[in-house]
Amino acid sequence: MRSLRNQLFIYISSIFLLFPIPVLASGEAHLQNFTAHWGGIVCIIIFCLAYSLVIVEEQIHMRKSKPVMLAAGLIWMIVAIIYSQHGDTHTAEIMVRHNLLEFGELFLFLLAAMTYINTMEDRNVFDKLRGWLVSQGFSLRTIFWITGIISFLLSPIADNLTTALLMSTVAMAVGGTNVRFVSIACINIVVAANAGGAFSPFGDITTLMVWQKGIIQFQEFFVLLVPSLVNWLVPAAIMSMFVSSDKPDAIEEKVELKDGAIIVVVLFILTIIMAVCAHNFLHLPPVLGMMTGLAMLKIFGYFLKMKIKRRNQVAVDDTGAGALGVEAFGDRDDRREEDFNIFKKLARAEWDTLMFFYGVILCVGGLGTLGYLAALSELMYVDLGATKANILVGVLSAIIDNIPVMFAVLTMMPEMDHTQWLLVTLTAGTGGSMLSVGSAAGVAVMGQARGIYTFFAHLKWTWAIALGYAASIWAHFLING
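Below the sequence we write its predicted structure tokens.
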């Protein structure tokens, strides 16, 4: 019955695809300034209230996507009403569709990347790395540096959030009851992961948005390598002086890679190459390469599923359970492998994060349609100047979160030279490290090491992280200016 229903749905959907669907409303968007309008002020209040709930997510235990999604809907309703009252029934529709296109590209790109990460996690790729680290018997100071170096080098590929979560589990496994070490190691990991993600299009959501916008080309991100390295090394060198050289007992943990692990890693690398080539050589959105790579993973997942299914059938036949219709003394449970289903890996994507991006992009887009971003651009990039404004973007990223700040900058599109666009990419990517709530990596690790890595534990080292932030800006102008 379910199969018949699915077939019917596909058939009806195919019929509808034969008819042309209008993608954009007729006419062009005519933006007006409604910053002093009562509706505009209400929209600002709605956004501030929603984001206040995001900031206190850890205290109230409400997922961050919920308030911003509600705020997005309310803001765009008010935007549509305001423009309709002034005789314009097209601008709101055109602008909201534009914002949905921005979100759609980002959503599909991240969905493909998250599915790959979840599949590699399922195949024990990350557990293998963690198992090797905790079994070597390194000193605490050595672990501090190793986890920092790996975080810096891994985040450009696996993204800063995944990297920070992986490395924080290593610090917790090695540190054990040594709360002071675990806390300072987690701070180092968050700073390193954010800094490493700043010089790669795949390392952070902000760099991904800049790359997809076509402002900075793929290879140009790597000129930020040295400034990003300075951003991490300065606070790391200071913090390492407060880390003990004691050598904890080695933890014996042997982890074997599951079937297909190496192939999944290779497919992920090929997917990244396709995304880069689609953007650089074919002038297509990078998401096309990512989704093609996701299709390759799903096809490989099919063959892997069939292979595991055959092995499980052999295991059942060997125990005689197939003939008896029962499990023979538990042998079936011992020998059966867990079925592989790629859609379960896709379902494990960070849906709260993805829906949060939807809410943020539409909220900021709605405020921009009312004229607030143009006013903010005038205040920051004309009155203050590009350099001061871009440094301020990093500071705001620590307080508000770098994603809405960077999206606002990209929506404003201020007139800046290439050096300044590289600067804002650097500051937005690393500025969030100054507070634990300033980046997705910091928030995630706070949940992972609850009660150990806290807001106030991180705040104690904000001065050292700020020194690294300032030093990285100096290094950027020295090298790239």
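Confidence is low (pLDDT under 50) at residues 11-26, 322-332.
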